[in-house]
Specification:
UDP-N-acetylmuramoyl-L-alanine:D-glutamate ligase, alpha/beta, single chain
Length: 431
């Protein structure tokens, strides 16, 4: 039995040593022992390479505006561990987390003695979430973000009302496969028999895999560009404005304070999902709820402006697709700025394909590292960059302090890379 919050967190993190173990057998074993709490939930399942968190955020806000109580399961966390399991955007309490660990820890120890082996950190957290929303605090609806892939992800023991696949890109290729088709096959693993899937996947080869899986299990696929569309998109000073037309309704001039064309796609997925819930599951969602939900949605650590003087933005662009979206957003909204980049990342990412595109838009490139087991060193990152104005800084806090006192009006300081790094930076800046 754990008695304190710190003990609970230490025990959860101790599971990290087990690494990633794809497969659903351990989850199914734990769910059976808990009386299958996952079957008591109305859920929406969200997978994809990027944009899962933002899509969850948009949809949560729409449903909250309509008066529903909404549980969410997301990863990784930015401010505090508890935010991974939240109700209406509020993380569960420290006491609730301790209570959940007290339920799951004996099960994990029991499971460890079987031929299946002990559960990983993510499996433990997922089991805690299912028990919380299935037994302790049942919600009107729970939006669940898949962790890695989909087919063998520990969240994939649910039978949801609706599945969402945001997009497909190259990430976690050592586990998910080296082609877009292989990665799409893993993500499409969340599609269940008769459960519709909404997707913004664009690459023909990846989309074909998703549509074939949907067809095979008689699940209707709603595809961005075919079944719902974005028109009249234009950047604004505070975000984006756009129109979404679903099969059911047209929503003109929606506005979001989240920057980037990719966020417009994420928002459109949420609009289509809300429309589906309204049309087929009798959720009472009006246009005003969609409009205000999209406008109020904010997702910390994603192109988040933390100060105007100096202009300082953080963004957890942690893979190729994220870097591409980040660059497009900078070029759309801040084309007139001198961009100074501070970058740190995990060593198992395709670093060369991330660093050089950033260097192409930067006036200066600074590389650093942070306290995390898989973090690349500043020197490793610098060696992959061809920029004439590149440098290494071991202490990123010093770099930030210098920039806060010596800047020009046309400077943009952009801190990006691993979300774990962005989490540390954000805490430092907020304090």
């Amino acid at each position: 039995m754990v008695r304190t919050y710190n003990e609970a967190i230490d025990w959860i993190h101790s599971r990290l040593k087990l690494g990633i173990k794809p497969g659903l057998k351990r989850m199914e074993w734990m769910m059976d022992k808990l009386g299958n709490p996952e079957r008591r939930m109305k859920a929406i399942h969200v997978a994809g390479t990027n944009g899962k968190g933002s899509t969850v955020c948009y949809l949560r806000h729409i449903l909250q505006e309509a008066g529903y109580s909404v549980g969410t399961f997301t990863s990784p966390y930015v401010e505090q561990f508890n935010e991974r399991i939240s109700v209406n955007g509020q993380p569960i309490s420290d006491e609730e987390l301790v209570q959940l660990v007290d339920v799951i820890k004996p099960l994990a120890e029991q499971l460890e003695k079987t031929e299946l082996g002990g559960p990983t950190e993510f499996e433990v957290i997922t089991a805690m979430m299912f028990y919380y929303f299935g037994r302790l605090n049942v919600q009107d609806i729970v939006i669940i973000e898949a962790g890695l892939g989909g087919r063998f992800d520990s969240t994939n023991v649910i039978y949801p009302l609706l599945s969402v696949i945001t997009n497909i890109g190259y990430d976690h290729m050592n586990i998910l496969g080296e082609t877009l088709e292989a990665i799409a096959f893993e993500k499409a693993g969340i599609i269940k028999a008769g459960v519709p899937v909404i997707t913004a996947v664009e690459q023909p080869e990846a989309l074909r895999v998703i549509e074939e899986k949907a067809s095979a299990v008689k699940a209707k696929a709603y595809v961005l560009g075919n079944d719902f569309t974005i028109t009249a998109h234009s950047p604004t000073e505070t975000g984006e404005q756009f129109t979404v037309e679903t099969l059911f309704v047209k929503y003109p001039s929606l506005t979001t304070t989240m920057f980037g064309a990719h966020q417009v796609k994420n928002a459109s997925l949420a609009v289509m999902a809300a429309d589906y819930l309204r049309t087929y599951y009798s959720f009472i969602i009006e246009e005003e709820h969609i409009r205000s939900g999209i406008e109020k949605a904010k997702w910390i650590g994603r192109f988040e402006k933390l100060s105007d003087e100096p202009l300082l933005i953080i963004d957890g662009a942690h893979n190729e697709a994220g870097i591409k979206s980040l660059i497009e957003t900078v070029q759309t909204h801040y084309a007139d700025k001198n961009v100074h980049i501070l970058f740190a990342a995990l060593s198992d990412k395709p670093l060369d394909k991330m660093i050089q595109p950033l260097a192409d838009i930067a006036k200066t490139m600074t590389f650093t590292s942070f306290d995390f087991p898989r973090a690349a060193t500043a020197k490793q990152l610098e060696a992959l960059c061809q920029h004439p104005n590149k440098t290494c800084r071991e202490d990123w806090r010093e770099w930030i302090e210098e920039k806060r006192t010596s800047f020009k009006n046309d400077d943009l300081f952009l801190i990006t890379g691993s979300l774990y790094f962005i989490s540390e930076v954000r805490k430092f800046l907020k304090n």
